[in-house]
Design brief:
By secondary structure, this protein is mostly helical. The protein contains two helices and no strands. The protein has a domain at 45-74. The N and C termini lie far apart (69 Å). The chain crosses the membrane at residues 24-42.
Length: 74
């Protein structure tokens, strides 16, 4: 995105470019930001889900092990 902004605003004669090029560059940058933000949200959700699943399975295994030990003593 920084390259697009430098490319658009860094040129001395912006009168030669039609306004549609600037519009399309900004639309493309916006879509890119939206996709990257969505990707980051999905990755954070997957990490959080994996952590919660790992904690839940760890607790379930501990409970199962505790029940087995109690049943063996009886």
């Amino acid at each position: 995105m920084a390259f697009c902004l430098v490319f658009i605003f860094g040129q001395e004669s912006s009168r030669d470019q039609p306004a549609s090029e600037v519009k399309y560059a900004l639309i493309g940058a916006g879509i890119g930001l939206l996709l990257s933000f969505g990707f980051i949200l999905v990755k954070l959700h997957l990490i959080r889900k994996q952590v919660l699943d790992t904690e839940a399975s760890g607790l379930q295994m501990r409970r199962t092990e505790g029940i087995e030990v109690i049943s063996e003593d009886d």
